[in-house]
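Cross-check.
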Amino acid sequence: MDLKNKISQLVEKHYSQVVEIRRHIHQNPELSFQEYETSKYITSLLDSWNIKYKSGIANTGIECILEGQNPQRKVIALRADMDALPVAEENDIPYKSNKKGVMHACGHDAHTASLLGTLLILNELKDNFEGTIKFIFQPAEEKLPGGAKQMIEEGILENPTPEFILGQHVYPELTYGKVGFKKGVYMASSDELYFTIKGKGGHGAMPEKITNTVLIASQIIVALQQIPAEFAPKNIPTVLSIGKVIANGATNVIPNEVYLEGTFRTMDENWRKDAHNKITNIAKSIAEKQGATVDVIIKKGYPVLVNNENTTEKIIQYAKEYLGDENVVKLDIRMTAEDFAYYSQKIPATFYRLGTSSDTENINPLHSANFNIDENSLKTGVGTMAYVSIQYLNS
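Predicted model, tokenized:
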């Protein structure tokens, strides 16, 4: 029996358990850096399967090492994230979240279940591949500084060091049975912006006696919005958005302080650094010219996610072998961010999308209260990851 058929049979064999795992995790979500019960659940499964692991990495993260034939020949890593979001679930399903205000609205339950299913299959196929596979169950993808960064700092890419890392993410815009790839730069960097404009507030009818912090804040917002169009290098996608404004005055009261929050995203690390300086200088210049001050805090978030051209092309070809050419699609860049980017800055990486919908005309998007997946997509997720991993190791 060829490899594709072996894996397809094992997918069917373990499918019900993968669904059960996904539903358990979905029903018991935990926020970033709080995945204690999720971690315990995963390790209990690994214990029952007699698979060795190391836990407590970045507090709740887990590492498994699976050796095939000739373990030293090649090492790769597979990664799934485990955390949920502060979203109140509105789905009417038997496995609805049992935690008020917390939900797996980004599909990390499916990521973790899929990786566990892949581990089950590859554990049965150890005689079919050469090399070593490192399985990474990662906390806190959704919250800065990100679990990937912390796991790397604690040595997840060492002992042994993988030459390549693979990750997948659910994608409701694709039907189940399909996967999507983008070679090269794929996802944006993500930085958080915080501004506090300070001045002498007072009566709105006496502008000559006050510093109009609200007006200054509005001018800063307008000026910052021009950065992507006026300063960003050509062909480098850039987004700057201010999403929160607090000016706690009244109809006739200008407050002493106005508070702003926003996000800055781009696809180039050098321009990102320059843009941080421009953001700070523009805000301070506007405030100072009108007798105010501004505190600017830029929390540097996830870097640009780059899919290695060579390794991603290999994975695309293997995915086509397993799923058929028509089920492997090309994706465009995304201005969303992912802490998988930290891995891609260290070693060759491929981050791809797993189609999860049965109806792409009426989807509930990621991070929404009604997000869910068609669980048939778990067959694609498990089978594809298992197949491409073996083919890569044996190449």
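Residues 3-188+303-394 form a domain with the Aminopeptidase fold (CATH 3.40.630.10). Residues 3-27 form the longest helix (25 residues). Passed to J.P. for a second look.
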